[in-house]
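Quick one, probably user error.
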C-alpha cells in the first residue's frame, strides 16, 4: 500500500536512476528556455535519445550506454547548437546558451519566431509580439486570442463568461465598459503575450471560472519615450479617442503616466416581443437607444523605485471619470389582439443621464530574501461612485379606456469602497517551487433609489417604491501551492481557503441577510512530454463566482411603466468545478474539458400576465454543466502567409425552476469558430493584413435561447517614417451579421427580443512614437478581486 501511495505522490522517484547529468538551456538574455528538444547521438552519428527541457529550462541525461555522445539542438528561433560530451569526465551540470538565428534572405533580414501558442502545465500562452495583430489594442487582441470567444463585446472561455482579467498576474479592478475602455487604451506593442488559464493556480483569487492574464514587456532600457495616439470610429454615429502615454526610466526609477479622453455617440437597436397566452395578446416594443458621452477620461500613473538590489516599491493610481452620459429614448409599443390587429398602444419617452467616478490607489513592496525566495506586500483601495437619473413619461391609449399619461422619476445613487492587504511568499530552485500567501479585504457598499410618480395628479415621492440597500463583506484567504519539475513529468498542486462574512440590509421592506462560510479550493496539475514532443496534461480546479454588488440590490429599477430589473439580496455564490485534459504536438493544441456549476447566478426574464409586466431578474438557477473540445492550430503556409484556426464544440445544459415551480432543462450543442489568415505585405515597414471570420452557433443561458451570430473583419496596419508613425485600419462586422435573437419559451412564458449593438464599423488609428522606443511599460501593481463585482 505504501508503494502505491509513493507512486501517486512522487512518481519520479519510482523511475529515477543513480547515474545522470543535468543541464540547463538559456538564451543570451539569461532566460531559461522550456520545451527545447535536445538530440543525443553516439560516435557513429546514430540518434540514441531525444530530451526536452522543462518549464525551468532543465533536462536530465541518463540511461546512455555510450561514454562519448554529441548533443544537438535545432530550434526555429536559435542557431544550431552542437557539443561533444565525455560522460565519464563530465561531473558538473551542463550550461547551454543558445544564440539568435538571423538569416539574410533576398536582402530582407528575418528573425525566426517563437511558436504563436505554447502549452504550459497550467495555462496556454499566446505570443502576441510575434503575431500579426500586435499593432491592435489589448481589447481587440483578447478577442482574437486562441480559446477566447466574443459575442456582442462579451468575452467567454469555453462558453463561460465568468472571467478574471489580470495584467502581469495583477487583478484589473474594472468591469464592463470601463474594462473595455482601459484595454482599448492599452497598446498591443507593449504586450508580450496573453495567457489563457482555464484552471487558475491557488495564488489567483478563487473568483471566476478562468483567468485572462496580459503579460507586458519589461522595462529594461533607460531613457524616455512617449506615444501620441488617436482613434476615429465610425459606426451608426462617430466616436473618437485621443491621448498621450509617457514612460521614463533612469537608474533605479521607472515612471509611467497616461491620459486618454474619448467622446462620441453610442447606439443600440432592440425590439421586444411578448406573447400573453391568457389574454391572447402580443406586445411589440421598438427601442433604438442613442446615448451621448462627450467626456470619457482615463488617467493612469505608476512609479516604481528600486531601494536597493533586493527591494522594490511601487505606487499606482488609476482613475476613470465620466461626468455625463445622456439620451432620450422614444419607445412605441403596439398591442395586437387574437386577430393580429392593433387594438391598443402606448409610447414611452425616457429622458435620462448618468455619471460615474472610479478611483484606485495601490502600493506594493517586493523584497528578495535570497537568491531563491522573495516576499511581496500589497495594499489596495478603490472607490466607485455612480448616479443614474431618469424621467419617464408614458402616453397610454388602451382599448375601452380613455387616453391618459403617466410620469415617474427615479434617482439611483451607489457608492462602493474596497480595501485589501495581501502578503505573498515565493521560493524556487531548479526543480521545486513553493508559493504561499494570505489576504484580507473589506467591502462596503451603499445604494439608494428614490422613486416619485404622479399617481395622485402631481409628482410625489413614493416610499414604498424607494429603497436603501447597505452591504458589508469581509474576506480572508490563505493559499499555498507546490510544483515539482523533474524533467518529462511536471506536477503542481495547491489549496486556497477563503472565509467570507457578509451582511445585507434592505430598507423596503426591512430585511437583514447575514451569512458566513469557509470554502476550500484545490487545484491539481500533471503534465508529461514524450521524446517526440507529444505533450499530455491533466488538471482539476474548484472555483467560486460571487455576485456583483449591484445584483444583490432588490430595488426595482424601472425601464418603463411595464418593465423593470430587480436583483436579489439572497443570491448565492456559484461553485464551479473544472476538469481539463490537454494534448499538444507541433502547434496542434487540443483541450477536452468538463465544467460543473452549482447554483449559477445569471439574469433571466419572465412575464407576469396579471399586470402585463416583463421582469428582468438576477437569480440563481438550479445547476449547469458543459463538456466539449477546443482545437487550435496555426499554419505557416509561407514566410509571409499564415492561417489560424480556432474551433470549439460544446454540449451545455442549464436546469432552472420556472415561475410555475416546475424543473426545466435547457440544453444545446454549441459550435464556436474563429478562422483568420494573415499576410505580411512589406517586412521593412511592418505592413500587414489580416482577414478573419467568427461564428457562434445557437447557445443558451438559463431560461434564454440565443440565436447564432457571426462577424467578418479586416485589419491592416503599416509603419512610416522609420517606424515613428503607425497607422491602422480595421473594419468590423463587414456584413452586419452579429444580430441576435434571445428568447424564453416554456409554460406560459413566450417572449423574445432582437438585439443589435452597432458592431458594424470602421476604425482609423494613428500613433506617433517619440523618444527612446526601446523603453517598455513599467509593471502593473497587484490589485484586489472584489472590485470585479462592482
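Nope, works fine. Designed sequence:
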Amino acid at each position: 500500500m505504501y508503494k502505491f501511495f509513493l507512486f501517486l505522490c512522487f512518481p519520479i522517484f519510482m523511475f529515477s536512476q543513480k547515474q545522470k547529468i543535468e543541464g540547463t538551456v538559456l538564451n543570451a538574455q539569461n532566460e531559461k528556455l522550456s520545451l527545447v528538444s535536445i538530440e543525443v547521438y553516439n560516435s557513429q552519428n546514430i540518434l540514441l535519445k531525444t530530451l526536452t527541457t522543462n518549464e525551468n529550462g532543465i533536462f536530465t541525461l541518463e540511461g546512455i550506454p555510450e561514454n562519448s555522445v554529441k548533443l544537438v539542438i535545432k530550434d526555429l528561433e536559435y542557431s544550431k547548437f552542437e557539443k561533444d560530451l565525455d560522460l565519464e569526465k563530465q561531473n558538473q551540470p551542463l550550461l547551454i546558451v543558445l544564440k539568435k538565428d538571423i538569416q539574410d534572405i533576398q536582402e530582407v533580414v528575418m528573425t525566426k519566431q517563437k511558436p504563436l501558442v505554447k502549452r504550459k502545465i497550467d495555462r496556454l500562452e499566446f505570443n502576441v509580439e510575434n503575431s500579426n495583430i500586435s499593432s491592435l489594442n489589448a481589447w481587440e487582441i483578447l478577442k482574437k486570442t486562441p480559446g477566447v470567444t466574443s459575442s456582442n463585446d462579451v468575452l467567454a472561455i469555453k462558453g463561460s463568461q465568468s472571467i478574471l482579467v489580470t495584467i502581469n498576474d495583477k487583478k484589473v479592478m474594472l468591469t464592463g465598459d470601463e474594462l473595455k475602455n482601459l484595454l482599448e487604451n492599452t497598446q498591443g506593442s507593449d504586450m508580450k503575450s496573453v495567457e489563457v488559464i482555464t484552471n487558475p493556480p491557488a495564488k489567483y483569487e478563487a473568483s471566476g471560472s478562468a483567468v485572462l492574464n496580459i503579460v507586458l514587456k519589461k522595462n529594461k532600457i533607460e531613457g524616455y519615450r512617449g506615444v501620441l495616439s488617436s482613434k476615429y470610429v465610425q459606426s451608426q454615429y462617430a466616436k473618437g479617442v485621443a491621448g498621450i502615454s509617457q514612460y521614463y526610466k533612469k537608474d533605479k526609477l521607472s515612471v509611467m503616466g497616461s491620459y486618454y479622453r474619448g467622446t462620441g455617440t453610442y447606439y443600440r437597436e432592440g425590439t421586444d416581443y411578448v406573447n400573453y397566452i391568457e389574454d391572447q395578446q402580443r406586445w411589440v416594443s421598438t427601442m433604438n437607444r442613442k446615448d451621448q458621452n462627450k467626456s470619457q477620461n482615463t488617467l493612469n500613473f505608476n512609479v516604481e523605485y528600486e531601494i536597493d538590489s533586493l527591494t522594490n516599491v511601487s505606487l499606482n493610481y488609476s482613475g476613470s471619470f465620466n461626468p455625463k452620459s445622456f439620451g432620450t429614448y422614444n419607445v412605441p409599443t403596439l398591442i395586437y389582439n387574437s386577430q393580429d390587429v392593433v387594438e391598443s398602444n402606448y409610447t414611452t419617452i425616457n429622458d435620462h443621464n448618468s455619471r460615474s467616478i472610479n478611483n484606485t490607489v495601490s502600493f506594493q513592496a517586493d523584497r528578495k530574501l535570497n537568491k531563491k525566495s522573495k516576499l511581496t506586500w500589497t495594499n489596495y483601495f478603490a472607490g466607485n461612485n455612480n448616479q443614474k437619473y431618469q424621467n419617464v413619461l408614458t402616453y397610454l391609449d388602451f382599448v375601452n379606456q380613455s387616453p391618459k399619461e403617466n410620469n415617474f422619476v427615479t434617482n439611483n445613487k451607489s457608492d462602493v469602497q474596497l480595501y485589501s492587504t495581501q502578503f505573498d511568499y515565493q521560493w524556487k530552485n531548479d526543480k521545486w517551487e513553493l508559493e504561499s500567501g494570505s489576504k484580507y479585504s473589506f467591502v462596503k457598499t451603499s445604494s439608494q433609489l428614490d422613486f416619485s410618480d404622479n399617481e395622485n395628479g402631481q409628482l410625489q415621492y413614493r416610499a414604498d417604491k424607494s429603497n436603501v440597500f447597505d452591504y458589508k463583506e469581509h474576506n480572508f484567504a490563505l493559499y499555498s501551492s507546490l510544483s515539482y519539475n523533474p524533467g518529462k513529468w511536471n506536477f503542481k498542486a495547491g489549496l486556497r481557503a477563503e472565509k467570507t462574512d457578509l451582511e445585507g440590509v434592505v430598507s423596503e421592506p426591512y430585511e437583514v441577510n447575514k451569512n458566513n462560510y469557509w470554502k476550500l479550493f484545490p487545484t491539481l496539475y500533471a503534465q508529461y512530454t514524450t521524446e517526440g514532443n507529444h505533450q499530455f496534461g491533466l488538471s482539476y480546479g474548484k472555483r467560486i463566482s460571487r455576485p456583483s454588488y449591484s445584483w444583490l440590490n432588490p430595488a426595482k429599477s424601472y425601464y418603463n411603466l411595464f418593465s423593470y430589473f430587480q436583483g436579489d439580496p439572497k443570491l448565492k455564490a456559484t461553485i464551479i468545478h473544472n476538469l481539463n485534459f490537454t494534448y499538444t504536438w507541433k502547434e496542434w493544441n487540443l483541450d477536452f474539458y468538463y465544467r460543473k456549476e452549482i447554483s449559477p447566478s445569471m439574469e433571466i426574464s419572465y412575464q407576469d400576465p396579471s399586470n402585463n409586466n416583463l421582469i428582468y431578474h438576477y437569480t440563481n438557477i438550479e445547476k449547469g454543466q458543459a463538456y466539449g473540445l477546443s482545437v487550435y492550430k496555426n499554419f505557416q503556409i509561407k514566410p509571409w502567409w499564415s492561417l489560424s484556426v480556432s474551433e470549439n464544440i460544446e454540449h451545455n445544459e442549464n436546469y432552472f425552476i420556472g415561475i410555475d415551480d416546475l424543473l426545466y432543462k435547457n440544453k444545446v450543442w454549441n459550435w464556436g469558430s474563429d478562422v483568420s489568415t494573415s499576410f505580411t505585405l512589406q517586412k521593412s515597414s511592418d505592413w500587414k493584413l489580416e482577414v478573419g471570420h467568427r461564428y457562434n452557433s445557437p447557445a443558451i443561458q438559463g431560461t434564454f435561447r440565443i440565436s447564432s451570430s457571426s462577424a467578418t473583419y479586416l485589419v491592416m496596419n503599416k509603419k512610416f517614417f522609420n517606424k515613428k508613425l503607425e497607422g491602422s485600419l480595421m473594419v468590423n462586422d463587414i456584413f452586419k451579421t452579429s444580430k441576435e435573437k434571445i428568447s424564453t419559451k416554456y409554460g406560459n412564458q413566450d417572449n423574445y427580443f432582437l438585439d443589435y449593438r452597432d458592431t458594424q464599423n470602421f476604425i482609423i488609428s494613428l500613433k506617433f512614437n517619440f523618444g527612446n522606443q526601446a523603453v517598455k511599460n513599467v509593471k502593473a501593481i497587484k490589485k484586489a478581486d472584489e472590485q470585479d463585482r462592482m
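The chain has two domains: 20-98, 247-772.
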